[in-house]
Amino acid sequence: MNLTIDKIALLLGMSLMLIGLWGGFTQKNLLKIILSFSIFDTGLNILIVALGYLPGRTAPIIDGSAVTPENLALVAIDPVPQALVLTAIVIGFGTTALLLAYALKLNQHKKSLDINQFTDLKW
Amino acid sequence: MGEKIVYAIIAVFIMLNYGFLVNGVIRRIYARVGRRIGVPIYQMYIDLFKSWGLRTNIRHGTMFYLGPIFRLTGGIGLFLFMPAVYGLALFTNFSFSGDLLLLLSFQFFGTLGMALGASESGHPNSAIGVTRGLAQMTAVEVPFILAIMAVAIQYDSLSLTEIIAQQQGGFLNWTLFTNPLATAAALLAMLGAMMRAPFDVVLAPQEIPIGPPTEYHSNYMVFLQSNRAIFPLAKSILFMNLFFGGATTIVMMLVKTFILLMWPVLVGVSFPRFRVEQSIRWFLRVPMIIGLLGIAYVHFFLK
Amino acid sequence: MVSPFYILIVGLGLGFLLGMTGKKQAALTNMLTLFAMAFFTGVSLHWIQGLYTGAFQPSMVFSAGFKPPFSISLFLGMHEAVISLMINVLGLISVWYFREFLLRDSKPLGAVLLVMFMGLNMLVFTRDLFNIFVFLEITAISMSGIILMNDNHHAHAAGFKYLLASSLISAFYLLGAVLIYFSTGSLYLDDILTMKSAFAPMALIAVFLMVIAIVIELKPFPANGWALDVYEAAHPGIGAIVSGAVTTTMLFLLNKILVLGSDKIYLLTASVGALTFLFSNWMGLQQKNPNRLLGYSSIGQVGLVLAILGMKPVLGDGVEMIGFGVLLTHFLAKAGLFWLSGTVKGSSLESWAILRNNPVILTIFGIFVFALSAFPPFPSFYAKWELIIGLSGTGNYLLIALILLGSLFEVIYLFRWFGIVVKAESEESDSGIEWGKAAGPALFALALLAGGYFARNYLSAPDMMNFIPLVAVVVLWVLDFMPAWAKNTLLLAMVGIYSWFYLPQYSDYQLIFGIIFMAGAVLTLLYGYSEKGKRPGFYPLTAMMFAGLIMLVEATTLFGFFFAWEVMTAGSYFLILRGKKSQPHALSYMLFSFGGALLILAGFAMAHAVTGLWTLDALVMDSPLSPVIFIMLTLGFLTKTAAIGLHIWLPGAHSEAEADVSPMVSGILLKAGVYGLIVLFMRMGTQYIGGVDLMVILSWVGILSALIGNLMAAMQEDMKRLLAYSSVGQLGYILFGLSMMSNLGWLLAISGAIMHFLYKTMLFQAVGGVYSRTHDRMMYRMGGLIFRMPMTFIVVLIGIIALSGVPPLSGFAGKWLSFNAVLQKEYYLQGALAVLAGAVAFLYLFRLIHAPFLGQLKDNLRKVKEASLWILLPQYLVIAVIMAVSTVPGLLLERIGKLLAKTFPDGGLLWVDSKIPFGARTAISEYGYWNGTYVMLVTIGIFGILLIVQLLMQRNNKKVGQFNIVYSGERPSTPETTHHAYNFYAHYSKALGFLMVPLAERFWTWISERVHDIAHQLRQLYNGNGQVYLMHIMFFFLVCYFLINGGF
Description:
The complex is a heterotrimer.
Chain A (H helix, E strand, L loop, with lengths): L4 H22 L3 H23 L19 H4 L4 H31 L13
Helix pairs in contact in A: 1-2, 2-4
Chain B lengths: L1 H32 L9 H11 L3 E3 L2 H19 L19 H21 L3 H32 L4 H8 L7 H4 L1 H14 L24 H26 L6 H21 L5 H8 L2 H17 L1
Helix pairs in contact in B: 1-9, 1-10, 2-9, 3-4, 3-9, 5-8, 5-11, 5-12, 8-12, 9-10
Chain C lengths: L4 H15 L6 H28 L5 E4 L10 E4 L1 H20 L1 H6 L4 H17 L3 H20 L4 H32 L4 H6 L6 H17 L7 H9 L2 H23 L4 H22 L5 H21 L1 H4 L2 H26 L15 H14 L6 H15 L3 H27 L11 H21 L12 H11 L5 H19 L5 H21 L9 H17 L3 H20 L5 H29 L14 H16 L7 H8 L4 H8 L1 H15 L3 E2 L2 E2 H21 L4 H21 L3 H32 L15 H14 L7 H15 L2 H26 L15 H19 L2 H14 L6 E4 L7 E4 L4 E2 L1 H22 L3 E3 L15 H4 L7 H7 L6 H21 L6 H20 L3
Antiparallel strand pairs in C: 1-2, 3-4, 5-6, 6-7
């Protein structure tokens, strides 16, 4: 199997997602958990971009020569996934910021960042 | 209807006097067993007139006053709702009012009224006697009703007249011989109903004034004594009709009831006394099982 | 036509603007937020009105004039408009609810709220799958933002867990949305839908991912720990938004996307939903914190809607309406309850007791609880009916069982809570209710009632019911401010007028039970005149119970019967709850009744599935299922008649109820169960399971109820408990009679039902009269009351003679019929036990009259007066009836016999004329004969003669004082020691105590403890650790994945 750029990106994306999940499930420090989620998000975004990449195609810019409105669907790469990823990145940013704000508030109260400290509510 | 009422009054009069005499005889028997001479057999009359003659009598309240009347109504009613002598207008009584079940239920009319009257006196011993009596009665009912049921199944009827009719034609037709198990259950139950040892803890007549009649005296006592004369007789007539072929003449009726009355006396003089819980357990064991066997016998062999 | 885009524009625009205002402009901010939310609501209303009148067509709106996939597409039809209206109204009230925060704090709460509700609206409208992702994230982020604004560190911890979970969920969704795009080349829902039949494997996975993401958003068991914490810790206003608005949106969204899914995905959704409903409610049993309890309840209800939506391939499009019914109830009730929670300080169930200081608030709370429990007339009731009918039609019995069990658990904790609120000792008594905070709940409670009114239109069953009796409830509710005597008169008049017009239309069994119910109403209401004051709430509830009973006998359809049954249960529950110490007993009454009602519902549904009929004749069937249906319905009715084993609610409920409620719930209400059994037995007849005649089993149940009920009655010291146990016994006789399925058996049962009604009404009233004077129910503490209350004594005297079956009073008819029927049916063993039970009845009856009325009068009772006239009047009316029926039994028995001849032509009584005039006739059975008139005349004759003799014989008869008894020449010390009444039948319990071991009570206690233990074990899942919750989500996801895509 040829290790082309898109395959590498796919593998990278998946690995990052798995690393992120592993971190999210095992790390006890709030900040590390948040970081793991960021890694997970990044991996997901890379994955999506990689899935959208089709080898041998060009950028979806209708310049009238290589890409025309007629052959757009055949020669150009679909721009939609990248647009989606762009949105997802923005949203991921928002989420991370909020998570950090929570971490700050939680730390202010208990002077700790250990997630095991915040189990007062249960059952 | 008028003639029926006259007949009934005559019948009740005869039975009352017969009852007094029989009770005198029984007291004598008890005395003889205890190696005493005992009272004359007309002692009951002496007691009656003595009670009647008391100059004052008191009452604790209305129910207390009515108690003995309820009691005697129960006794006389039980007698009057049965045909005492088969085929004799004088002793057919008001048996057309209802069947066997009426009798079974009506015997509690007096019990209940008496219990109420005795309770109103406020004497603790009266209430104790009543609880004992009621408790024991519930257990006695079971073998008795099983026996009755066996009889009803056997003769396909609840009408006493019909049951007697089917037993006519020789003593082998008596339920005693056609269904001895049911008869045995009923006779054992009869012991409990007759207030004699070993089931006489209700009245406990020998030692202390206990039991429902504790507070009764004077002419109340007349009523209660009269009831003690007629009520056991009425019950033995019932047993006679159910198990011993009934009676076709007055004399036969008197003889049969006398013999039947001797059965609890015989047991009574021979045995000591049960406590209430003991007698309840006893009735719900041996007699009940015999009663069930009696029904099974009728159900599987006679039908 | 206002484009829905304006919601987006206004929401986002104002959101950004308000974010920049400072503390000084707080009033302005608040105002603008309110206006914006009102604008949202206006848009929804505008669309609803337009769509309803036909001015608008359901339409798709595209952004910027492009077609998809290059634009955002919003669709607005009636469904969308209604859902958005719900959300926006909740938003509007939320802004109002939060106004003190908005005015006080500098935090931009208003802005975030606006953005959030904008997001929710868009989620409802949008048809673009990626858009959904965006708005999901917007709502999740703004929700977290709102939680962050709480000044509560518990809420912060909860919010953190919430946000972590949301991130994971949105990742699932995003992956799904992207994959579907790769697979189909579109993100536009309607385009993709056209390709559904040719989905590639990747598309299937994509759909799974999207669906499962939204399912997890809806908090399925066990992946829902993160949500519970939010419910518990966050401000109740947030709870209302999450539970009401967010859930509603998500469910609508799910329904939108689920269309893409295969039947397998539907099935998965349904199973997940049903399990969530069951387990969430189960765990709710252990909750002591009201907000967390509401959380469990929310999750459960949403699970139910999930289950319903998942049944779409099986049940068809009708499920949407059913789901909506449940959702609407949940939405209104949960939001309302969360808002109410904000007015309560303290975090225990008991602290809610302050609600009862205000009758209006208490009513609102009651409406929410009853709506959540699916009682009529709320939408959830109709939804429950339709759902069970539908499921049963398709044979999904397992699902029915799960759902019914779940709703039973829900009812347990809801009514435990309700009972505490109404009855428990209040921690703080006089803190007022903030009316501003109660406005929302009030509005939503009204909406629930309105919803129930409209829900009727969507009923698939014919709804031929006479709702007139319910009018009385409403009228009395409105007039509740009037004094008790006025309301009493009003209700009496209404009963009178109603029976004047409707009783003549009744026939057969309907007539008999109609008379019992209406005459019962009159008799028990007469007693009501003895009560002073206003008795707030009493009359509407009484009217509700009687309305239910009347509708029950009028019911001709399965639905009508069930509706009436539930109305009656609700009314009687409230009545029982009014007693001073009746809270636990009312709860156990409710649980048994509710469990029974569920069985009835399931039985009806199965019967309908078998025969396809809607009338009660649906029960006439011959199918392999009929024994099962028979058992379920019988058990359902037996809970109401308190057959042995199902009786444990009765003694407490009947004895702790108020004095005039006891005769209602004992003498009258129990007959509803009898009526149900008659309706059932008439139509289904004798059923067999494996060759065993079920009627024989029932005859044993009946006779054991009679025996054990009577034995237990004899052992009671409390006079009302004694009467209550006696009801168990008598209802046992009635069941025994019915189970014989013969003319005489039914004659026994029906005349027994009438007699029980008369005796119990009279005796409970007599006992109530005693209580009204002595304020005591322990019989041994009384004594000698015959001297103080002779009129009451006479009533009890007649009552016990009649009840014990001693001739010449009417009770003997029962004994006679019973024996004859037993002989006819050859039920010898049962017959013998019946006789024993009858003898035992003497014990408790004698005790009932001896201990309070006879014996020694106590010092503290020397001045008690006779019960009041209004208490005695109904009792003497009953005595008149009893004496008439005793003297001429044919009055009753011959008429019932004629009716029974239609059902059982053979084996009835023959009535022949006797020599005595005035219609005295002799009853002749196969075995014997009986003439009640003769017996009466002979008895009275003998008694009269003897009485005259006694009067003539006596000399100087005088009454003596209390202690003048033969006492060894002494005077007894005190009445207390002389009165022999305590532990009256000690010897009896010594002999037969083994029959009185409370096995049923132990059994149900054991069940209850185990159920609660399991609940406790289950909830250990939620250990509070956010990471563990993430693992739950992952685990849930993986299990679902493998279930759908194989791999196991």
